[in-house]
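INTERNAL AUDIT FORM
Audit reference: QA-55
Scope: verify that the stored structure record matches its stored sequence.
Auditor: D.O.
Record contents follow.
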Amino acid sequence: MSVRVLLVDDQPLMLVGLGILVGGTADLEVVGEAGDGREAVRLVRVHWRVRALSQRTDLRNAPHGS
């Protein structure tokens, strides 16, 4: 059973790089990509039932003033 991963980064080049790295790992499956945290939450709510959520956060990706 593979771990399903939703990639989130505000830099498209980072998303591509992460997709290559994670997609090349046998026990990880990239199930989607988002350009920011809000889009990620929307994708999770709309497309997946989530029992547990693990994240890697880039604090520079956080929206300012929220």
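Auditor finding: record pair retrieved intact. The chain has a mean pLDDT of 79.
Action required: none
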